[in-house]
Amino acid sequence: MIRLVDVTHAYGERVVVDHVSLELEEHRIGLIGANGSGKSTLARMLNGLVVPDAGRVLVDGLDTRGHAREIRRRVGFVFSDADTQIIMPTVAEDVRIGLRGSGLSRAETDARVDAILDRHGLADHRDHPAHLLSGGQKQMLALASVMVTEPRVLVCDEPTTLLDLRNVRVITETLRGLEQQVILLTHHLDTLVGFDRVLVMDEGRIVFDGEPDAAVKYYVESMERRP
Ligand SMILES: Nc1ncnc2c1ncn2[C@@H]1O[C@H](COP(=O)(O)OP(=O)(O)OP(=O)(O)O)[C@@H](O)[C@H]1O
Fold this sequence. Notes:
Blueprint: E1 2-11, E2 14-24, E3 28-33, H1 39-45, E4 54-59, E5 62-63, H2 68-74, E6 75-78, H3 91-97, H4 106-119, H5 135-147, E7 153-157, H6 165-176, E8 181-185, E9 197-202, E10 205-210, H7 212-224
Parallel strand pairs: 3-8, 3-9, 6-7, 7-8
Antiparallel strand pairs: 1-2, 1-4, 4-5, 9-10
Helix pairs in contact: 3-5, 5-6
Adenosine-5'-triphosphate is lined by residues 11, 16, 33, 35-41.
GO molecular function: ATP binding; ATP hydrolysis activity; ATPase-coupled transmembrane transporter activity
Keywords: ATP-binding, Nucleotide-binding, Transport
Family: Belongs to the ABC transporter superfamily.
Protein backbone atom coordinates (compact mmCIF):
# COMPACT_ATOMS: atom_id res chain seq x y z
CA MET A 1 0.00 0.00 0.00
CA ILE A 2 1.16 3.53 -0.76
CA ARG A 3 0.65 6.18 1.89
CA LEU A 4 1.32 9.90 1.62
CA VAL A 5 1.65 11.72 4.90
CA ASP A 6 1.25 15.51 4.73
CA VAL A 7 3.30 15.76 1.54
CA THR A 8 4.35 19.13 0.18
CA HIS A 9 6.59 19.97 -2.76
CA ALA A 10 7.61 23.23 -4.45
CA TYR A 11 9.58 24.18 -7.52
CA GLY A 12 11.25 27.44 -6.45
CA GLU A 13 8.51 29.58 -4.95
CA ARG A 14 5.70 27.61 -6.57
CA VAL A 15 4.06 25.03 -4.32
CA VAL A 16 2.76 22.28 -6.65
CA VAL A 17 1.80 19.63 -4.08
CA ASP A 18 0.29 21.17 -0.99
CA HIS A 19 -0.15 19.14 2.23
CA VAL A 20 -1.53 16.00 0.62
CA SER A 21 -2.31 12.95 2.77
CA LEU A 22 -3.65 9.80 1.10
CA GLU A 23 -3.84 6.05 1.47
CA LEU A 24 -3.85 4.40 -1.94
CA GLU A 25 -5.06 0.84 -1.66
CA GLU A 26 -7.82 0.38 -4.27
CA HIS A 27 -7.06 -1.73 -7.33
CA ARG A 28 -7.92 1.01 -9.86
CA ILE A 29 -7.33 4.64 -8.93
CA GLY A 30 -7.64 7.61 -11.31
CA LEU A 31 -6.05 11.03 -10.84
CA ILE A 32 -7.45 13.92 -12.85
CA GLY A 33 -7.16 17.70 -12.84
CA ALA A 34 -6.28 20.74 -14.91
CA ASN A 35 -2.89 21.18 -16.57
CA GLY A 36 -0.34 22.21 -13.99
CA SER A 37 -2.45 21.12 -11.00
CA GLY A 38 0.40 18.92 -9.72
CA LYS A 39 -0.67 15.43 -10.85
CA SER A 40 2.64 14.41 -12.45
CA THR A 41 4.64 15.68 -9.52
CA LEU A 42 2.43 13.70 -7.14
CA ALA A 43 2.66 10.61 -9.36
CA ARG A 44 6.44 10.82 -9.52
CA MET A 45 6.54 10.83 -5.75
CA LEU A 46 4.86 7.42 -5.66
CA ASN A 47 7.99 5.63 -6.85
CA GLY A 48 10.57 8.06 -5.56
CA LEU A 49 11.31 9.84 -8.86
CA VAL A 50 10.53 13.01 -6.90
CA VAL A 51 11.21 13.15 -3.17
CA PRO A 52 8.93 15.61 -1.37
CA ASP A 53 10.28 18.72 0.33
CA ALA A 54 8.20 17.88 3.38
CA GLY A 55 6.11 14.93 4.50
CA ARG A 56 6.60 11.25 3.72
CA VAL A 57 5.67 8.83 0.97
CA LEU A 58 5.59 5.23 2.19
CA VAL A 59 5.40 2.17 -0.06
CA ASP A 60 4.61 -0.93 1.99
CA GLY A 61 6.03 1.04 4.91
CA LEU A 62 9.29 1.96 3.11
CA ASP A 63 10.01 5.69 2.86
CA THR A 64 10.87 6.83 -0.68
CA ARG A 65 13.50 8.99 0.96
CA GLY A 66 16.19 6.33 1.30
CA HIS A 67 14.68 3.21 -0.29
CA ALA A 68 14.62 4.25 -3.95
CA ARG A 69 15.77 0.92 -5.38
CA GLU A 70 13.36 -1.32 -3.50
CA ILE A 71 10.53 1.08 -4.21
CA ARG A 72 11.18 1.23 -7.96
CA ARG A 73 11.03 -2.54 -8.04
CA ARG A 74 7.60 -2.44 -6.45
CA VAL A 75 6.17 0.59 -8.25
CA GLY A 76 6.54 0.74 -12.05
CA PHE A 77 6.10 4.00 -13.93
CA VAL A 78 4.83 4.56 -17.50
CA PHE A 79 5.26 8.00 -19.06
CA SER A 80 3.01 9.60 -21.66
CA ASP A 81 5.75 9.88 -24.27
CA ALA A 82 7.00 6.35 -24.90
CA ASP A 83 9.99 7.73 -26.85
CA THR A 84 11.46 9.00 -23.59
CA GLN A 85 11.12 5.55 -22.04
CA ILE A 86 12.37 3.33 -24.86
CA ILE A 87 16.15 3.15 -24.54
CA MET A 88 17.33 0.13 -26.52
CA PRO A 89 17.56 -0.37 -30.31
CA THR A 90 15.23 -3.35 -30.68
CA VAL A 91 11.93 -4.28 -29.11
CA ALA A 92 13.22 -7.39 -27.30
CA GLU A 93 16.36 -5.61 -26.09
CA ASP A 94 14.28 -2.85 -24.60
CA VAL A 95 12.21 -5.32 -22.62
CA ARG A 96 15.28 -7.35 -21.64
CA ILE A 97 17.16 -4.38 -20.18
CA GLY A 98 14.59 -4.17 -17.39
CA LEU A 99 15.76 -7.57 -16.14
CA ARG A 100 19.42 -6.59 -15.93
CA GLY A 101 20.68 -7.34 -12.45
CA SER A 102 17.58 -9.41 -11.61
CA GLY A 103 19.62 -12.57 -11.00
CA LEU A 104 17.61 -14.56 -13.57
CA SER A 105 19.46 -17.02 -15.80
CA ARG A 106 19.70 -16.35 -19.53
CA ALA A 107 17.02 -18.96 -20.24
CA GLU A 108 14.70 -17.52 -17.60
CA THR A 109 15.26 -14.03 -18.97
CA ASP A 110 14.50 -15.20 -22.53
CA ALA A 111 11.32 -16.92 -21.36
CA ARG A 112 10.16 -13.85 -19.42
CA VAL A 113 10.87 -11.51 -22.37
CA ASP A 114 9.07 -13.80 -24.84
CA ALA A 115 6.05 -14.18 -22.57
CA ILE A 116 5.66 -10.45 -22.04
CA LEU A 117 6.09 -9.66 -25.76
CA ASP A 118 3.47 -12.26 -26.56
CA ARG A 119 1.07 -10.94 -23.95
CA HIS A 120 1.37 -7.38 -25.27
CA GLY A 121 1.00 -8.27 -28.93
CA LEU A 122 4.64 -7.54 -29.77
CA ALA A 123 5.99 -11.04 -30.44
CA ASP A 124 6.07 -10.46 -34.21
CA HIS A 125 8.12 -7.29 -33.69
CA ARG A 126 10.68 -8.93 -31.41
CA ASP A 127 13.78 -7.96 -33.40
CA HIS A 128 12.41 -4.82 -35.04
CA PRO A 129 13.94 -1.41 -34.37
CA ALA A 130 11.89 0.08 -31.55
CA HIS A 131 11.86 3.55 -33.11
CA LEU A 132 10.02 2.20 -36.18
CA LEU A 133 7.00 1.04 -34.17
CA SER A 134 3.74 2.98 -34.41
CA GLY A 135 2.80 5.29 -31.53
CA GLY A 136 0.43 2.70 -30.09
CA GLN A 137 3.00 -0.09 -30.36
CA LYS A 138 5.64 2.12 -28.72
CA GLN A 139 3.35 2.76 -25.78
CA MET A 140 2.70 -0.98 -25.55
CA LEU A 141 6.47 -1.58 -25.57
CA ALA A 142 6.99 1.00 -22.82
CA LEU A 143 4.32 -0.80 -20.80
CA ALA A 144 5.81 -4.24 -21.53
CA SER A 145 9.28 -3.06 -20.49
CA VAL A 146 7.89 -2.04 -17.11
CA MET A 147 5.64 -5.09 -16.72
CA VAL A 148 8.51 -7.51 -17.32
CA THR A 149 9.96 -6.42 -13.98
CA GLU A 150 6.70 -7.58 -12.33
CA PRO A 151 5.97 -4.51 -10.22
CA ARG A 152 3.11 -4.69 -7.73
CA VAL A 153 1.84 -1.23 -8.63
CA LEU A 154 1.80 0.57 -11.96
CA VAL A 155 1.67 4.37 -12.10
CA CYS A 156 0.74 5.60 -15.59
CA ASP A 157 1.16 9.30 -16.34
CA GLU A 158 -1.20 10.04 -19.23
CA PRO A 159 -0.26 6.92 -21.21
CA THR A 160 -2.93 7.59 -23.85
CA THR A 161 -2.41 11.31 -24.44
CA LEU A 162 -0.42 10.92 -27.66
CA LEU A 163 -2.50 8.06 -29.10
CA ASP A 164 -5.35 7.83 -31.60
CA LEU A 165 -8.75 6.62 -30.47
CA ARG A 166 -8.14 2.99 -31.36
CA ASN A 167 -4.89 2.86 -29.42
CA VAL A 168 -6.44 4.71 -26.49
CA ARG A 169 -8.84 1.74 -26.32
CA VAL A 170 -6.08 -0.85 -26.71
CA ILE A 171 -3.95 0.63 -23.93
CA THR A 172 -6.97 1.24 -21.70
CA GLU A 173 -8.14 -2.37 -22.09
CA THR A 174 -4.61 -3.63 -21.42
CA LEU A 175 -4.41 -1.62 -18.21
CA ARG A 176 -7.84 -2.87 -17.17
CA GLY A 177 -6.70 -6.48 -17.59
CA LEU A 178 -3.63 -6.18 -15.35
CA GLU A 179 -3.51 -7.90 -11.99
CA GLN A 180 -1.44 -5.05 -10.61
CA GLN A 181 -2.80 -2.05 -8.79
CA VAL A 182 -3.03 0.75 -11.38
CA ILE A 183 -2.84 4.47 -10.63
CA LEU A 184 -3.78 6.28 -13.83
CA LEU A 185 -3.36 9.98 -14.58
CA THR A 186 -5.46 10.96 -17.55
CA HIS A 187 -7.32 13.65 -19.46
CA HIS A 188 -9.34 10.90 -21.19
CA LEU A 189 -12.10 10.86 -18.62
CA ASP A 190 -14.04 8.00 -20.20
CA THR A 191 -11.13 5.64 -19.50
CA LEU A 192 -12.02 5.85 -15.79
CA VAL A 193 -15.32 3.97 -16.11
CA GLY A 194 -15.37 1.11 -13.61
CA PHE A 195 -12.49 2.49 -11.55
CA ASP A 196 -12.71 2.04 -7.80
CA ARG A 197 -11.71 5.59 -6.90
CA VAL A 198 -10.90 8.86 -8.66
CA LEU A 199 -9.01 11.78 -7.14
CA VAL A 200 -9.35 15.32 -8.48
CA MET A 201 -6.39 17.63 -8.03
CA ASP A 202 -6.42 21.43 -8.16
CA GLU A 203 -3.54 23.75 -7.32
CA GLY A 204 -1.63 21.06 -5.49
CA ARG A 205 -4.51 19.79 -3.36
CA ILE A 206 -6.87 16.85 -3.58
CA VAL A 207 -10.22 18.62 -3.93
CA PHE A 208 -12.39 15.54 -4.57
CA ASP A 209 -11.97 11.87 -3.73
CA GLY A 210 -14.68 9.37 -4.61
CA GLU A 211 -16.53 7.39 -7.28
CA PRO A 212 -15.55 8.00 -10.93
CA ASP A 213 -18.91 9.48 -12.01
CA ALA A 214 -19.04 11.94 -9.14
CA ALA A 215 -15.36 12.84 -9.53
CA VAL A 216 -15.67 13.50 -13.27
CA LYS A 217 -18.82 15.59 -12.68
CA TYR A 218 -17.03 17.61 -10.01
CA TYR A 219 -14.03 18.17 -12.28
CA VAL A 220 -16.05 19.09 -15.40
CA GLU A 221 -18.21 21.54 -13.44
CA SER A 222 -15.19 23.12 -11.78
CA MET A 223 -13.55 23.59 -15.20
CA GLU A 224 -16.75 25.15 -16.60
CA ARG A 225 -16.79 27.65 -13.73
CA ARG A 226 -13.27 28.80 -14.57
CA PRO A 227 -12.95 32.24 -16.17
N1 LIG B 1 11.04 19.95 -12.81
C1 LIG B 1 10.29 21.05 -12.71
N2 LIG B 1 10.86 22.26 -12.48
C2 LIG B 1 10.12 23.38 -12.34
N3 LIG B 1 8.77 23.42 -12.43
C3 LIG B 1 8.15 22.25 -12.66
C4 LIG B 1 8.86 21.01 -12.82
N4 LIG B 1 7.97 20.02 -13.06
C5 LIG B 1 6.76 20.62 -13.04
N5 LIG B 1 6.86 21.95 -12.81
C6 LIG B 1 5.73 22.89 -12.68
O1 LIG B 1 4.91 22.44 -11.62
C7 LIG B 1 3.54 22.64 -11.93
C8 LIG B 1 2.82 21.32 -11.80
O2 LIG B 1 3.26 20.46 -12.85
P1 LIG B 1 2.78 18.96 -12.99
O3 LIG B 1 3.45 18.43 -14.21
O4 LIG B 1 2.95 18.24 -11.71
O5 LIG B 1 1.21 19.17 -13.27
P2 LIG B 1 0.16 18.24 -14.02
O6 LIG B 1 -1.11 18.38 -13.25
O7 LIG B 1 0.70 16.88 -14.20
O8 LIG B 1 -0.01 18.94 -15.44
P3 LIG B 1 -0.38 18.32 -16.90
O9 LIG B 1 -1.79 17.87 -16.84
O10 LIG B 1 -0.17 19.50 -17.79
O11 LIG B 1 0.60 17.21 -17.16
C9 LIG B 1 3.51 23.24 -13.33
O12 LIG B 1 3.36 24.64 -13.21
C10 LIG B 1 4.84 22.89 -13.91
O13 LIG B 1 5.27 23.86 -14.83
